[in-house]
């Protein structure tokens, strides 16, 4: 091992909760490759300077850093949304570490979209946007930066160029937009960006949590050494990565966004394929519940399924019986949904987008009441809250 690498690994670990440093997983439990070892070193370096919100977030950032060195291989360029509720949550410090470890960093603070268009090539830079809340923080400001938002959205997928009129002849010219990007800011970014991002929700350090101060003169050469080793390992694997289709634990846009990270983990081997898929599942599931309205609309389906099961899965339930079960659940949000808990009207509004509504039904005892059939929910359950399946195999 070189002297430069020893400088990274020989320091005493500085950690907080969820901040393991050094080899990951039981020693000798899986073969450790050069790539797996290198990812572990990068993970330790990130944890040295930044308290991450979870072990999964630390894994995701490590894999995102590595994936920037293989951008020509990817069909999608995942965004990394580094957001927090207030100042001093470590967002800018994480961007400092990214700047010294990712491929060809391009700081976009005060850069115009036109300048960024002209900087994206076949081997694109990695866009780093600090204080993104000043770009998208209010409707008025966001409207002025609509072009930047469009650039970040279109650049998530390959072959989505933007066309601009240039030169004295006003000739329409296409500019590439495809590039990985990390954005740090207070509060959530626009939904269209968050939906294309690996979201890391930072928080302030708690009592007893400490990190090593970042000093550019001392630490940048160490991080650059890791960056160069990442490039040396990954760039020769570009064609292999381009043809690799990893088994994903999620679907649709979430799979598009996480696929480069999982692919890097598969290329590294060792414990990283399992860690990558675990991070993908946990962090994607967490984000699905962040939008309160969307989260409640999914939660109501899950809780209605539990209510039917609690009554023995009858063919139909009256609205009254269903609401009684929902409002009685001490772990559910429904007893505090409004001043009187969830009402028939509230239930109707939550189910409206699914095309599900109550109707007059005949129940045992030849009584007729408003209610729902179990069959009404089977399609929505399958689409929006399928029951968990065993994790897929990760072997290459």
TrEMBL record:
Q: Where is the DUF3631 domain?
A: 201-384
Look up the domain of life of the source.
Bacteria
Matching InterPro entries, A to Z? DUF3631
Q: Name one Pfam family in it.
A: DUF3631
Ranges annotated as biased composition (Basic and acidic residues):
1-13
Quote the biased-composition stretches of kind Low complexity, using this chain's numbering.
Answer: 14-26
Q: Which parts of this chain are annotated as the region Disordered?
A: 1-26
Write down what this protein is called. Putative phiRv2 prophage protein
- Per the UniProt record, the source organism is Actinacidiphila reveromycinica
- Lineage from the top down? Bacteria, Bacillati, Actinomycetota, Actinomycetes, Kitasatosporales
């Amino acid at each position: 091992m070189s002297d430069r690498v020893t400088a990274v690994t020989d320091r005493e670990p500085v950690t907080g909760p969820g901040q393991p440093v050094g080899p990951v997983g039981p020693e000798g439990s899986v073969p450790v490759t050069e790539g797996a070892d290198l990812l572990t070193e990068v993970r330790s370096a990130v944890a040295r300077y930044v308290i991450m919100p979870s072990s999964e977030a630390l894994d995701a950032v490590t894999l995102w850093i590595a994936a920037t060195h293989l951008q020509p291989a990817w069909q999608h360029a995942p965004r990394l949304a580094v957001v927090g509720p207030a100042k001093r949550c470590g967002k800018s410090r994480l961007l400092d570490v990214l700047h010294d470890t990712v491929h060809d960093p391009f700081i976009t603070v005060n850069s115009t979209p036109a300048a960024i268009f002209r900087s994206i090539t076949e081997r694109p830079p990695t866009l780093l946007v600090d204080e993104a809340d000043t770009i998208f923080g209010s409707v008025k400001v966001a409207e002025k930066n609509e072009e930047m938002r469009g650039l970040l959205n279109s650049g998530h997928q390959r072959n989505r160029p933007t066309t601009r009129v240039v030169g004295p002849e006003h000739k329409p010219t296409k500019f590439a937009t495809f590039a990985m990007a990390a954005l740090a800011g207070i509060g959530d970014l626009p939904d269209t960006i968050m939906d294309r991002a690996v979201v890391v929700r930072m928080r302030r350090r708690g009592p007893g949590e400490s990190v090593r101060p970042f000093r550019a003169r001392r630490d940048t050469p160490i991080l650059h050494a890791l960056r160069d080793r990442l490039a040396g390992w990954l760039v020769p694997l570009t064609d292999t990565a381009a043809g690799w289709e990893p088994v994903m634990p999620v679907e649709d846009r979430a799979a598009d966004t996480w696929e480069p990270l999982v692919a890097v983990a598969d290329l590294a081997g060792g414990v990283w394929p399992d860690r990558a898929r675990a991070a993908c599942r946990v962090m994607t599931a967490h984000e699905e519940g962040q939008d309160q309205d969307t989260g409640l609309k999914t939660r109501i389906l899950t809780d209605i399924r539990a209510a039917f099961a609690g009554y023995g899965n009858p063919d139909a339930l009256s609205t009254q019986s269903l609401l009684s079960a929902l409002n009685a659940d001490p772990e559910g949000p429904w007893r505090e949904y409004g001043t009187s808990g969830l009402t028939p009207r509230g239930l109707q509004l939550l189910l409206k987008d699914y095309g599900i509504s109550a109707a007059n039904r005949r129940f045992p005892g030849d009584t007729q009441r408003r209610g729902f059939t179990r069959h009404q929910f089977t399609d929505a359950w399958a689409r929006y809250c399928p029951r968990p399946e065993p994790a897929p195999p990760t072997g290459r």
